[in-house]
Structure formats: C-alpha cells, structure tokens
Amino acid sequence: MKIEILGSPLPNIPFEERPANCSDVMWRYSKNPIISRHQVRGGNSIFNSAVVPFKDGFAGVFRIDDQGLAMTLHAGFSSDGITWDIREEAIQFKNLYGDCGKYTGGYDPRVVFIEDRYYIVWCNCHNGSTVALGYTFDFQEFFQLPNAFPPFNRNGVLFPEKINGHYALLNRPSDNWHTPYGNIFYAESPDLKFWGMHREVMKTVQGSWQECKIGAGPIPIKTSEGWLLFYHGVVERCNGFVYSFGAALLDLNEPWKVIARGRQYLLSPQMPYECVGDVQNVTFPCAALCDAQTGRIAVYYGCADTVTGLAFCRADEVIDFIRRDSVPYCK
Amino acid sequence: MKIEILGSPLPNIPFEERPANCSDVMWRYSKNPIISRHQVRGGNSIFNSAVVPFKDGFAGVFRIDDQGLAMTLHAGFSSDGITWDIREEAIQFKNLYGDCGKYTGGYDPRVVFIEDRYYIVWCNCHNGSTVALGYTFDFQEFFQLPNAFPPFNRNGVLFPEKINGHYALLNRPSDNWHTPYGNIFYAESPDLKFWGMHREVMKTVQGSWQECKIGAGPIPIKTSEGWLLFYHGVVERCNGFVYSFGAALLDLNEPWKVIARGRQYLLSPQMPYECVGDVQNVTFPCAALCDAQTGRIAVYYGCADTVTGLAFCRADEVIDFIRRDSVPYCK
Amino acid sequence: MKIEILGSPLPNIPFEERPANCSDVMWRYSKNPIISRHQVRGGNSIFNSAVVPFKDGFAGVFRIDDQGLAMTLHAGFSSDGITWDIREEAIQFKNLYGDCGKYTGGYDPRVVFIEDRYYIVWCNCHNGSTVALGYTFDFQEFFQLPNAFPPFNRNGVLFPEKINGHYALLNRPSDNWHTPYGNIFYAESPDLKFWGMHREVMKTVQGSWQECKIGAGPIPIKTSEGWLLFYHGVVERCNGFVYSFGAALLDLNEPWKVIARGRQYLLSPQMPYECVGDVQNVTFPCAALCDAQTGRIAVYYGCADTVTGLAFCRADEVIDFIRRDSVPYCK
Amino acid sequence: MKIEILGSPLPNIPFEERPANCSDVMWRYSKNPIISRHQVRGGNSIFNSAVVPFKDGFAGVFRIDDQGLAMTLHAGFSSDGITWDIREEAIQFKNLYGDCGKYTGGYDPRVVFIEDRYYIVWCNCHNGSTVALGYTFDFQEFFQLPNAFPPFNRNGVLFPEKINGHYALLNRPSDNWHTPYGNIFYAESPDLKFWGMHREVMKTVQGSWQECKIGAGPIPIKTSEGWLLFYHGVVERCNGFVYSFGAALLDLNEPWKVIARGRQYLLSPQMPYECVGDVQNVTFPCAALCDAQTGRIAVYYGCADTVTGLAFCRADEVIDFIRRDSVPYCK
Amino acid sequence: MKIEILGSPLPNIPFEERPANCSDVMWRYSKNPIISRHQVRGGNSIFNSAVVPFKDGFAGVFRIDDQGLAMTLHAGFSSDGITWDIREEAIQFKNLYGDCGKYTGGYDPRVVFIEDRYYIVWCNCHNGSTVALGYTFDFQEFFQLPNAFPPFNRNGVLFPEKINGHYALLNRPSDNWHTPYGNIFYAESPDLKFWGMHREVMKTVQGSWQECKIGAGPIPIKTSEGWLLFYHGVVERCNGFVYSFGAALLDLNEPWKVIARGRQYLLSPQMPYECVGDVQNVTFPCAALCDAQTGRIAVYYGCADTVTGLAFCRADEVIDFIRRDSVPYCK
Amino acid sequence: MKIEILGSPLPNIPFEERPANCSDVMWRYSKNPIISRHQVRGGNSIFNSAVVPFKDGFAGVFRIDDQGLAMTLHAGFSSDGITWDIREEAIQFKNLYGDCGKYTGGYDPRVVFIEDRYYIVWCNCHNGSTVALGYTFDFQEFFQLPNAFPPFNRNGVLFPEKINGHYALLNRPSDNWHTPYGNIFYAESPDLKFWGMHREVMKTVQGSWQECKIGAGPIPIKTSEGWLLFYHGVVERCNGFVYSFGAALLDLNEPWKVIARGRQYLLSPQMPYECVGDVQNVTFPCAALCDAQTGRIAVYYGCADTVTGLAFCRADEVIDFIRRDSVPYCK
After folding, report:
1. CA-closest candidate to residue E240, choices F239, D128, B206, D68
2. Which CATH number fits domain B27-324: 1.10.340.30, 2.115.10.20, 3.30.465.10, 3.10.180.10?
3. Closest CB to F178 among A207, A238, A281
4. Range B298-312 average pLDDT
5. What is the ipTM of this complex?
6. Which of A47, B54, D162, D219 is 20 to 30 Å from B25 at the Cα level?
C-alpha cells in the first residue's frame, strides 16, 4: 500500500531533486543557507525559525538574536519559501492573560494552522524558560495565551489538529541552563489554557547521536502510516554538544505511542555553515512544508545557531528509512 | 483588629506551651523526634510526612524509605497526633488515568481535605520526578489522578479550598537531581486534571537562608490576614545544603501576591536529630494542624531526612514576626 | 539442607548475641567503636582495617592516617579480637619488583591466608591509586609484589583459595579522585604477578543504597551455598555520599556469577560514630572472622573514616536474608 | 637558648593547664564552646571572631550571622576572656573613602593594636568579597579605610608592627564562591591605603590536612625564633571540606620566608561542636592572646561555623612541634 | 558640539574606509589577518598583542605561544602598522623587585606611553596569574615593576595619563582557570608600586554578549565626551564561550563612572579566522591607534587565540552608537 | 653515528617530500584528507585508524562511526597506502574467551605484526572502555583475546617485538567519560592473556600542549637510538580540548625509561579538516609506516574525529628535533 501524506497539495513548496550522485534520504538545498545572519539590520543571527503556507505563498515567525544578543521574534513573508522578507520590528504580543504569560523575549518558534488561525508556540524567558503560546490570523497582529507549563520546558510543538478532542502538544522538560538531559513528552488541553494528561513519548538512546537529549522539531506531518515527526537529537562529544536530526513515526490516534524511530540521523552538522558559527555543530529543524500530492517535504533548520538552511526529502523514503533501521526499544 | 485563623476549632491538636526561658516564635516539642527511623519494620527512615484531622483523631500519609532505600507512602493513624500507628504495607493507588500518572514510589506527601475527600499530593518518580495527585475518602483505599505537570517539579501543595472557582496548587520547578535552584509557582485547575495559569509567587533571596531554593510546606492556613504559608528555604554552605523553614502571608484572593515574607527563618537545623542523619542539616515541614479557636499551630517536619519532629507556634505571633522583619522585595 | 560455612571452627572470635528486642540480621557490638581514633600516638584516625586468625589469637593490618593525614599501614595483634595492640611504626614493605610496586602510603587493606602465608591487598598511591599486593609470614616482615593493575583501581579483595587453579581477585575500577561510579570486577592470576580474564561481577543498582558505586569488603566466606561476600554500596544523597553495606552470594566455581544479592543493606550509618567524623555517614567493612562450627561471623568496619567498629551476624541468616529479598537483576 | 614570646606580660589571659592524660601540643578548654550560637538575641551563630587585650580586660569584634543569615560584626567586652558581653547592635563603620570600601556585611574579622589604635581587618562583601580594613580607638566608634585589594581575597591578617617601615598584611586570594584552592600571600603598604610588593608565603601541601587551601589565622606572634603564625588548612574529603589548623614560623625581618612549618595539624574537628553545625568539620582560628612572661597562648577559634571555642598551648612547645616535623619544602 | 579625540594627530595609522555596502560602525581590514600564526619561526600563534606609535612608525609587544605552548612576549616594529617585524627572541625583563614580580611567561600585553616611557602591562603567571607591569624606553631593554595585585587578576589596562595625580589601572578579578565570571575594576597608584582605592566600574549584563565576564581592551582613548573604552565581553553559549567586543564612555575625571555603554557589540567572531583556531569564537582587542585630527581609529584584536586582526571605526560614530543604544543600568 | 630505523626496507610507503618553503619537521600530505567521512556507505566518519604492510601493499583496521554513531571496526586494503578499499561490513571477532572480552563496538585500533600474525589492539566498550586485543592472519578472519585490564583504559599500543621475553603494551588509564587526565603506562605479558609489571612511562607536562593527558599513538618504531614513539597530547583551552601530537624516544631494553621527549608538538590542529568536524581541534595518530632504508615515515592520523589524514617526516630529523628541545623532566 502506498505511503501518503494526508493533507492538501502544496505544489509551490521550495524543492530541489536529489543530486545525481547522492543516495542520502535527506539532502541540502544547493544554495544554503537561505537566510544569512545579517539579512535583517541589527541582527546577529536568524535561525530556528518556523514557516507555514500563507495566502499564495508563505509566512513565518523568525528568531532573531540582535547584536546585543537579545532574542526576539519577527514575522516574515515569502512567495517562494526561499527568499524571505523579514520584518525588522519584533512581534509585539497582545497579552491576554497578564502574569500567566508575558513576552520578554522568545526563541525557537513553531507555527501551525488549526481551525481558524495560526498558532505560535515558542520558548519564553519570563521567570524561567517555558512553553509559551499565541496566535495570529494575519501575521500582523499577535495575541498571547497563558504559558502551558511552569518552567522549565522547551521545544513545544502543537499537532496540526485535535487528537481525541483535545489540543496536543509535544514538549521537552529542561532546566535553567544548557540542559544536559531530556526526553519528549505529550500533553493535552481542552482549551489551550489548561494542560494535562502528560505522557512520555520517547527517551534518549544511549551510544547514539540522540544520547543526551531530544526535542520535537517541525509540526508533525499526518501520513497514512502515522504522524511523521522530525526531531533533533543531541550527543555530547569530547568538545561539546552535536545537534543532528532524525525522524519517528507516532500512532495517529495515540501519538504518545512510537511506531518506528530511526536509529540513524537524517542530517548532521557537516557543512561549514552548520559546523562554524555562534554555536558549533548544530542542525535544528523547526518547520517543514509538505506537498501531499507528491510526498515532497522541505525542512527548515537552524544552522550553528547563526543562519537558516533548507533540506529536502520524500515522506515515503523517510518512513522506509526509519522502519528499516529502527531503534530497537522505541519508548 | 485580632489576627485569627479562619477555620474550625481543633482543640485536640498536639501542643506544648513555649518553654519558660524561650523567646522564639517557634519552639520544638520536648520529646522530639516523635517518629523514629525504625518505627516501622524494615524502614530506614520516616520523614517529610503529612497529617490531617480524621474522625476523632488524626490520619496521615507517611514517607518511608525502606532498607533498600525504596521510597513508599504509608497510611497512619493517631488519636493524639504524637503517637502514630503507621501501616507496614505501602499504599497502593488505584490508577485512574493509565500512563498519565503511575505510582512507582513516591515522596514528600501533603494531604488536604477539600469538599468531600482527602487529596494527597506527592512527588512521583515515574519518568522523572513531578507532582502527582490522588485522593482517598477513608485512608484505606486510594485513587490516583494524572500528574499535574511534566517533569521536573516538586513540593506540590494544594490550597484547602478553591480560589476563584479553581483548584490552586503551589509547586516548585526543579531538575532531574538535587536541584540547585528554584522558586515557588502557582497553578490553577478547573478539574484537577488540566492545569494552567502559571504564575511565579516567590523567588529565592540572595544572601540568606532561602538563597538557593524554596518550596511550599504544609497546606496554607487561612487567616484574617491572608494565607499563612510555611515554606522551606535552602542555602548552600561550604559543606552542603542547609534546609530551614520560615513563613509568608499570601493574598486571600490572589494568593500569588505576597503580603509579607519573613526575612528570618522560624526554625533551622540545630538539634542533633536535625543535623545528623541520612542528610545532614535538614528541617522540612510538610504538614500543620491548627486550632482556629486559639490560634495554636503544630508543624510536622522531617529531620535530616531520617525522622519526624514536631514544633509549635501561634498564628498571630508568626504573622507579627514576618511582618516586623519582612523581605524587602517579596516577589 | 543446612547452610554451612565451609572452613575451620574458630570458637574464640569476638561475638555478642543479638540483643533482646532486636530483629535485625546484623547487630553492632555494644561497646563500639572498638578502636578509637587516638589509640595509636600521633594518629588522627584508625579505620578500614583487616584482621585474621593468627596463632592463638588474631593479627591485623590497620590503616592509620596520622595527624598530617599521611596514610600508613600498621601491624596489630590481639588475643580476643577486640582489644588491639597496634604498632606505632608503620609497616615497611620489602619491595621485590622495583617500579612495579612501590609503597608510598597505603589504605584500606585486606588480609587473607592462602597456602603458606598471609597476603595483604591494599590501595597504593604510587603514580595513581591502584591495587597493591604483598605478603608476610609473621606480621613482622613484609614483602611487596607488583601492583595488579594500572591505576585507577581500589577495593582489591583476594579469594581465600585458588579458583580453577588461579588466584582470584575482586576489584573496583575507579578514577583519580572520589570516584562517583563503579562496579565490581573479577580477575585471575596464575602467579600473583600477571593478571587477566577480567569479568564484571556486579553493577550498581539504581534507586537504592548501592546506586552510585559498590566495592568488595572482607575476604569472601566459603559456604555450602556459595561465596558469601559482604560489600559496601554508596548512594549520593542531597548532602553527600552515604556508605552502607550488604551481602551477595557468588557461585563457588565461577564466582563472577551472582546467585543472590540483597536488595536491602545489612548495616547503614546510624550511630553517632558512623555519622560524625572526618567523613560523615560511612560504614565500610574490610574484614570478617567466622566460626564454621556455629556460623557466627564478626565483621570489622570503618566508621566515618575515623574509628573502627564491630558487628555480628550468622551466615545462615544473612544468606536467608539476601535470598528472600534479592536484587531482581543481579548482574 | 630559650624560646620566648617577644611582648608584654599578660597574666590574665584565659588558660587551663594541659589535662593529666593528654600529650597533645594543643588542648581544648574544658567548658567549650565558650560562646553559644544563641548568646546574642536574634543570632543564628557566633564564630570566627577576634579578641585583644583592652583596658583591664579584653575587647573583641565578633561575627554574628543573624536568623536571616545576614552577616554582621559586633563589638564585645570581657573581663576574663571567657564570658563575653557582645553588643546586640552591629558595628556601623564610618566610611572614610566612599566607594573604595563600603560595609555591606562582613565576616571573619581579625583585630590588632598598632601604634595608637585597634585595626580591624575583615572580609567585606561589597562588589565581591575582599579584604576590608578599619580601626577604632575605643570599640565604640569605628572607621573604615579603603579595601586593600580588588576581589576576591579573604583572611587578611595584619602584623602587629611595621616590617621594614611598612604595614604588612597576610592574605589569601580566592574566588566568588567556596574557593577550592588558595595559598597565603604577603603585601605591604606605606599608609594602609595603597598596597603592593606581593609575595607568596606558603603553598598548600598535597596529601595532607592542608592540601586544598590555607589561610592565616590570628595576628602573628613575635617570638625569639620568628613570627609564630597559626593558620587554617583545608582538605577535601569524600563528603566535604575539613578545616583544621596548624602553625608555621616566619622570618622576623622577611616574614614571607618560612623557617618551619608543621607537617601535622595542632587541632582538627573532633568534638561534636566542631563536627556538627551549620558547616560540618570546621575549626577556624581568628585570634590568640599570649602572655610573654610564661609563653602561654589562648587561641579563639570558630567551630562548625556555629559557635566559638578556646584552646591552649605554649609558644615553646608549638615551635618545637613544628620544627620537629616540618613540611619538607616549606615554600 | 563636535565629538573629538583629545590627542595628537597620527595620520599614518593603518586605515581603510568603510566598504561601500556596509553600514556597521566597525569594519574589518580587507586583508585580515595581518599577522599569521606562523609569522615567527617556532610560533604556534601570535595574538592579543599591543602596539603604539614609536618614532616614525610603530612598535609593539606581541604575545607568542610557541609550539610547546609556552607563552612569551616579543618586541616588534612596523612602519605602516600592518606589516610587522617581530623579534624571534622573547623579551627578557630586568626584574627590579625580586619576588614581587618575576617574569615566567606572560600573555595579553597592553602598552602605553606615559610621560617619558612606554609601560607594558600584562598577565604574569608567577604564583598565579595577575597583573604585571614593566617599562621600556626603546623596546630593546625592558624593566619589570612589582605585580599590581595578588593573584588572580587579568586584563590590566593603564590610563594614558594620571587621573587626579595618580596612575590609574583598569583590571578584572579572575580565578586560577578559565574564569566564568568577572567585572571591571579601577585602581590607583601614586608610584606604580602600591595600589589601592579599588572601585567597581562595570558589571556584566545578563542576557547579552557581555553576560559572563568583561575586560578592558586597548588603552582608553581621551575624547571630548569622556574616556572611550573598548572592552571585550563574553557569553557562554551552548558549546562554549564567545568573545565579542564593544565600547563604553567613562567620565574624564572619575573614570569609574560610566557615562554610556553600548548594549550591542561592535564586533563579534564571524569570520573563519575568528571562529576557527586554537580557541573558537574569540575576538579580543588589546590595542588601538587613533588619529585625533580625523577621529579615525584602528583596533588590533586577537582572533581565535591564533592570529591578529585589524578593524576600523571613527570615534564620533562609536560614541554615537553607544549613546543611542546604551545598557540601561550601566553600573 | 648515523641515526637509523632498525627494520626492513619498505620503499612503497606513501611519501611526499617536504614542500619547498617549509621548514617543519613534519608536513602534511598535499591532498589530505586521504579518507573522507562518507567514503564507506552509511558512515558518519572514518578516523583514528591503523595500517600495516600486507602482502604487496597495505592492510588496515579502520574505525567507522555509522550514521547512528555506533562505532565499528572495518578491514581495508590498499596498494599505495593512500587509496583505500574499506569493507562496508564490520569486522566480527571470534570471541575466544567468553565474558573476558566481548566485542560490542570498538574504537581507535592499532595493528602490529608480531612473529606470525597481525595483532589488533583497540578500545572496547564492554562493561566500560578498556584495552581489547585480537589477531588475524589474513584480515579476513579475526579472533579476540581477553581484555588486558579492567576498565577504564585506552590507547593500548603493543611493541612490535617482545621485550625481555614478554609482550609489552603501552596504555593510558582513563575514566568512564571524556577523561580529563592521564599518563602513559607500560605493562608486560608472557602470553597476551595475563598482564602485569605496570610502570609509569610519561606524565603530562604542565603549561604545554601535553598538559592534560597523553596517549601512545602508532606502534613504536625501533631505531638505533631507542624506540621512537609518536604520541598525542591534550591541552584544555578556554573552549575545549586540543589534541596535538609529538614524539619521544624510549630505551630499547627498558622502554619505560624516557631518553628524550619533545617539548614541542610535531603537528597540531591547524587545517580546516583538523579544526572543524564532529570534534573540533583533534589530530590523533594511530599508525605509521616506515622505510628503514631511507628513514622516511608516513603517519596516519584522525582529524577532528571525522576524517583521516597523512603526514610525513624522517626518523633522524624527528629524533634530532626532540633531543634539541626536550622536556626537562621527562618522567
């Protein structure tokens, strides 16, 4: 039976075919990085950012660290998904719940359309990093919901539809610093204000590229085989962390159950712009665009915490890949 | 105007008057510790435990570390609050929500009666320490609710009534080890399953006994002046942590607002059974019994992570004490 | 079938019967500690020491830290195993193999009689701590063999007879400091000079008193059920390490196979002389005397790295104890 | 030739003869501790304090940590050196040099009379711990001089007279926390405002009680053999630091040259009040009274960072002791 | 009013105009690095070095780490400030004050002309890193003064003239290793031998490129607006420290008072020779040449602890830049 | 007298003459790296590998980390020593001694021909990293011997002939992680099963490129002057470890005695492929081919834990180099 993405066709996503002599499941865009560190005036770096289809083209929420290293979120727009017009002014969230969620700088956003609006989930720094939520209808005006959890938590990723009637959120418990541990959890909410039903989804895997900590990446992609989740994994080598990313397949109805999980990474830091920068050896995916008709997927990922890259794959090949060489004990 | 505890008279709580030559606001029971480390067969230690009025006397949930250092919770009963009959068999929770809250050992319970039943909040070890909840009607049969948060979180303490229509829970974010930081947060829930509206209540105070981390202790006591909260504070001295405890006064309607907070501790590890044991220099309060008629309060506290002690005070004197010498910047 | 110690009767070992109201498998000598820190002039502490039957009474090798904290080994003699005459002058080893084993201070000795002489195994500090070996015929003159391993290794313990024709040595890999990890290994030697056939015997057990590191204690005792091994286990609590000890049963012919291993400790630091001293919360067994006729065993253990204590048990009861509540996955 | 203290007779210093069965060079006062933790109202502990002869009796500057753990200095007076009347109000220094030395809490004072006034040297917390200086004529009014060094420095100890025309100050470089290293240095000043000519006096000694860090204690005592310096030494044991103290002899004219330095400590934490308290295992000398006529010396030392003890010795015996067993390489 | 450098014209400093499409306040020399790691035979790296106008051209003191990684200082000469003739033999200082300042390898020199000679300030390794001083008249013969402070201190930078009659020295307290903290202090001296009047000048700024530690860079430049100070700031990212640099304006008469301080960096490691080398991600300025007539400034900075780069700016633009976006709380 | 390699001519080793303008003792191959990270399908990196002359050409054992970061060993063959045919299937060792040496992944192999077969020594991960041994006759079939030591030990390197009738093995004690210390030791064995006679050969050298840890590299080369040993040394710089390598000369008959040891490195990470990769700044030699007739040597070394490089030198020049500038205190 054919492996299919369950969703809308999106023929205009950025895509390049696999290079001739390449047999990798995932390959990089030939003109990477697509967003340079200085693309926005006053910026030190633009990375770990999220995009979605919007109108005829695409919109996104971008993490910019300015030249004082303050972290802010910025809206951006693109017709082809490659050339981006990113706003110089940071997003100002209209805070709907007072002390329960103040925007005081944010990082690592994810964006997803659910029902009638675009939800943004990011890591907020108010009283300790935790998962913040907000929404917009138009990428002009933004509203902030209460934080999902008490600190410390990062890498909050919403599913693109309700699961069993509840909003569903992947997340990764952490600490007040460069967390040296961490597994992926699942939480539910009836209303995006109150969260519960916490379950552990995946643990780290000893002796591997995902040994130290893992975190959900782009919004999960619905396929005929389950939710396709790209996620980053971290290993601590002799001279520091290395952030690679791979993929897993989660049950469609009980997404806290792992069907398959790739033992191998899909992409690791190997190019100069991934290995050299403010933080060496980081490839960190935060968004994916996919075309249900062809199975083509474009993954946006931060490189060395400095610039933004693009990589491509096909849903069926990725699912084959993680099924063929799966982590023996997935959960 | 008179400072009063708002609640029921409870004339039979354990109490001793302040010794003749003592001017401290809080004083120890003369026959401390009231529960020895070996009181229950096979036990290594009994400490950080919680008691409530129950029928004609008192009931409680006790933390016992057995001689393999497995941590379990045990029901206990007492007619005078001093001599306790603690069950040798550990509590078995009937798990109502599957993976969302499994009991795999627990520690540092708190117990409170709300509406029609006794709720137990403790620290659960399933997939990382976090705040677990359960309830009982009779201290015979126990039921487990979902965990309140993803890990890591400790020192969950429920308010004894709903605040603005929601259950209210103090808690302390932590990490996967002997957390070296931590402030007290506040969360709300409409149903004890989903939690949100997280607010920070109190931060640590540099250069003090509460410099390193703080955590709520007994169930807050409702008074005419606000919620009286006993809480522990930790300072890291040259040879390790020292756990003392003090008190604060929280706004009755918005308990995340601090009205007063004692700059000085009420009790610190000074007696041999508080300074010597499995963990040196720990006094850790988990429960209080109070008599609204007289303002008398009896605080149960763990000593050196080994035994259980009892200390006494009067509500009005404690509130005077923390108002007289309050942390300048409370929040 | 009766559980028996396989060996000689030794009716004159020190022993006290279990106190009336005590149900513990192991109990302390009523006049502990038997050796005070100042018993030898210029000494700061005497602990972690080893004794054997010798002539009509007993002899031993004692660790003394002097008042400069230099660590030296000293011979001692006793007629009753309780009152010890310990030599003020440190043992001088006649070095038989030059650079391969120099005595530059030593600690934590074990002593065992094999065939025709008394072997001493200790931790040597020459170019990094490792397992040193030596022997004496008379406790007057001592000879030093080559170190068994390159650094870092501690807690070397010889079996009292050859196993399958080879000398057999338990040991614990470590590092150059207060090692925060460590499992017990087994090595063989045809000649006490060359060692090999390294096998892992026991790992640490998470969430227990033996979570952090473990190390063999007294010379294993041959019984009808297998080798009875007392060993120390360490857990890191909030304010430091706690050293307790328990027991395991090893296969008689393949001692690297664990038959049973107590989930609970036999003795943990609970008395003031075990909890307070140069290093808090340490009970560290290094020697045992046993009477095959009665099954009585006397264990010598260091207390708080300061003084030496004595505890008693019976072989059959200990073996019952560790079989009744054994670590599920022993190896 | 007779070893003599060069100074005034001071027959009324507190002193007890060596107990009958004791052969130690230094022995404790039989009624230790002389100052309890609660002697001053609101105090958590009184320790690491300094005394000098004053009028007919003695005066001192005492470190008190209050029950919020704020550190303050307090004047005290005594007629016998044992019973102390310590002022409840903290010393307020009149700051003579603005930002160059602000009193914001202080600890570990030393006091010395030079020429016409009493100088106090302590550890100040303003912008990082460093050596602060002040003076008084009457222990009623106190004046503050500029800090001697930029942070981080502790254990500043003035010589009781100028050396080669300059004030001379021992000191110990440190860091912003519980420093895990540190040697003793010497500095000079023409005017107590500007300091220079820094020389290293003593390093730590590996494998000993003074392995980790050392710091000058009481004001050096002038003797016929050189300056007699009591100083603390620290070793890091398995469960934390142990603070003992010993002595060294410095050249009279070039005090940065060490003539002899005891390999053994004179006193280490062995009594309950030294081993148990806010910081376990600390004996920390800050002052000495001596009678030149008889050579008797009384040393005041902090115990477990909680209370204050007194110990006694004779100058000639101490000098013999450190000469007999001296650290081979003293500098 | 015009912003001016107060000083002499120096038309021959190296300078390139800002590239056409660049709007940065500071820009790099187009042929960076100007000094390669192997320029001097036997050298591993040449960086963190200082230059001054000298005769018709320029002279300097250069840090060279040889291929054994021994650190030495070397004189160098240049006619254009870009091509340098660096002496292969290390500078030998004539030690004027014995033990108070011995040259045993040095690093990170600064050079300044005051009155009649060139002063060199560097970090000396004798008995712990601290600020060493010396002088030369001709860059042939060098003399060493006493160290300014006891260890540990780094980044000593002299003002180019006396302030209120005293020599003035910026400095940065540190520790015995890769210090993870540190603010800039100010000290005075009447004679360059004795130092005092220590004041804190600037603290680190949380959540910024200067979050972890800061240290003065080149000799401060006197301007009509105050002392213009370039200084490095360090942030600890996920994979290590990043050393950038920015600028501040200090009061002319009370230079410990900060008038303005840039929230943003002027230059951060972004070029391959700044990001890759012995220490990744380091830009570390140690010298500046400036032309008072035109306001042009050339900054010499170490790159990745491996090579030396050059960057340019204009005094008025820098001062505008730091005034426009200044750290809110400067001190 | 002429310095000579004692051995066979090997004219076909890969070699390039020193470049014209280069005066270094060791120089890199102009087309480095010779083995790319992706040369073998599914591989993440190929480095730290060993080669030997084999038949007409060369054979080797290669460390490959696959794209899951599992570490495996692979046989490879080459006619010119530069272009390698590496087997995609990992080596499967026939385990001859059960639990005493199981292959569960391995790294950093060395290969040497002794008497009749090729021995492989590598680092095995079974129950903690330690030195594993095996052999092959044909690089098709491999047999595994018992591990040489209990964990933790790395960098085991066999001498190419017996010394005084015993096999001889250099090794480096380590710990269970990225060991931050370590000296080189020497062990002997009569039979490659039992090891003993441990001696320390070389310590680290403070303030140098070999300050932190050192480890033997290729099989020692027999010369007229002694055993020529290339070894890596590690220094911890501000942003991590730097692995360089140098050489030493060991006594022919007592190889634990150091005759000369270079103070300077021969090669340090300076090329992009050495500085950038999975682990920055690593050059790690594991093999050398040498031609006794000409003294030419080709060294194979891992680069950045990612690829494999080749460097050249001449035996006589290296020996001159390390004699001319030798570490003063070699042992």
Report:
1. F239
2. 2.115.10.20
3. A238
4. 98
5. 0.95
6. B54
Residues of A in contact with B147 (CB under 8 A): 198
Residues F96-129 pLDDT 10s: 999 898 888 899 999 999 999 999 999 998 789 9
Q: Which residues contact F242 (CB under 8 A, 6 or more apart)?
A: E278, F209, F234, F235, F236, F268, F269, F281, F282
Biggest CA–CA distance in chain A, Å, is 55
How is residue B170 written in tokens? Answer: 């103090």
Portion 195-214 of A in contact with F at CB < 8 A: 207-209, 211
Separation of alpha carbons A109 and A63, rounded Å? 7
Contact A196 B197 (CB under 8 A): no
Contacts of D242 in chain C (CB under 8 A): 278
Residue A317, chain B, CB below 8 Å: the answer is: no
Q: Give all chains having 3 or more CB-to-CB distances under 8 Å with chain B.
A: A, C, D
**pLDDT tens-digit profile, chain D (331 residues):** 699 999 999 999 999 999 999 999 999 999 999 999 999 999 999 999 999 999 999 999 999 999 999 999 999 999 999 999 999 999 999 999 998 988 888 999 999 999 999 999 999 987 899 999 999 999 999 999 999 999 999 999 999 999 999 999 999 999 998 999 999 999 999 999 999 999 999 999 999 999 999 999 999 999 999 999 999 999 999 999 999 999 999 999 999 999 999 999 999 999 999 999 999 999 999 999 999 999 999 999 999 999 999 999 999 999 999 999 999 865 4
Cα separation, E248 vs E254, in Å, equals: 14
**Closest of E258, E143, E243, E130 to residue E195, by C-alpha:** E130
Give the integer Cα–Cα distance in Å for B54 and C271. Answer: 36
pLDDT of residue C274 exceeding 60: yes
Average pLDDT, chain C: 96
Q: Which residue of A has its CA nearest to B199?
A: A100
Tokens describing residue F315: 């035996």
Q: Are B248 and B229 in contact (CB under 8 A)?
A: yes
Which tokens belong to F64?
């490959």
Minimal C-alpha gap between B220 and chain D (Å): 22
Q: Which residue reads 């899951």 in tokens?
A: F68
Amino acid at B183: N
Q: Which two tokens stand for residue B109?
A: 């319970």
Give the three-class secondary structure for D201: strand
Q: Among all residues of chain F, which has the CA nearest to that of E105?
A: F207
Q: Residue A51's beta-bridge partner residues?
A: A60
Q: How far is F24 from chain A (nearest CA, A)?
A: 28
Choose among A32, A93, A49: nearest CA to A289. Answer: A49
Across chain B, which distance is largest between two alpha carbons, in Å?
A: 55
Give the helix, strand, coil percentages of chain F, each rounded to 5: 5, 50, 45
Kindly report, residue by residue over E17-67, the tens digit of the pLDDT: 999 999 999 999 999 999 999 999 999 999 999 999 999 999 999 999 999
Antiparallel, parallel or unpaired: β E43-54 and C184-189: unpaired
Distance (Å, whole) CA F70 – CA A250? 24
d(CA B241, CA B212): 9
User: For residue D260, which amino acid is it?
Assistant: A
Mutate to test the interface with B, among C25, C214, C239, C282 (most CBs of B within 10 A): C239
What would the DSSP string read from start to end of A134-190? EEESSSSSEEE---SSSSSEEEEEE-SS-BTTBEEEEEEE--SSS-S---EEEEEES
The radius of gyration of chain A's CA atoms, rounded to the nearest angstrom, is 18
Q: Which residue has the tokens 């990474």?
A: A265
pTM of the model: 0.97
